[in-house]
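ugh ok fine here u go
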Amino acid sequence: MNWNKLYDKIYDWMLVVGPRILLAIALLFIGTWLMRILKRWFTNFLEHRNLEPSLRPFLLGTVSILLQILLILAVMQVLGIEMTIFAALVGAFGVAAGLALSGTLQNFTSGILILFLKPFRVGDNIIAQSHEGTVTAIQLFYTTVLTFDNRTVIVPNSKLSNEIIINLSREGKRRMDIDLKFNYGVPFEEVKAIIQKAIADSDDFLKQPPSRIGVETMEPDGYRVKTNIWVSTHGFNDLKLAFQEKLMKAFKQSGIKLPGMQ
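structure:
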């Protein structure tokens, strides 16, 4: 073996590749140091923004992974490593993963949109997918709703971002509508006075907007009275049940019978 020739080849190789290796090592250390600074800055940035708690670690992790990938690609570029095969492998893997996880990715994207746009928040009462209840958790892939009869409904986020959602809590108040029917022998003024007194005796109703009482329809066998009362969102159903019971007692004590009452 000719050691001189081997030495010359190694020396030539070091002259060509050595600076690249040193530059790549320096780039790796400097890039790692800059990544730590950027991650620290981004963490402070997220803490001062009104974001959902479940979204912060995801954004921080995503930014961290992207920075690491960019750093690795930069180091490979400095070393002169061919990127063609690597890019082809990444592209093929991305296509395969996208096809296999299309539904999951759709839920994931929808979860990001929900957390950013905030059509509803944890604690809101909503109607979604024919279920009415309170939002107990918003995750990246699904949202959990606890119905008023204590059922836990787990809804994929893609269903919530692409279909109609009724947010019952956003405005902070709701209108309670109560329909009652009377025969024409019962004076409307008397009915209205009883309802007004029942509303005035309750501290649970809002003063504004004012309540309304009026004849909604007139039918061959009687007329229908509609009452509109504004209440706070939370406790709506309990308040409606209690008020309807109160009205029944008030009409019975006044001698006014609703259809079917004995």
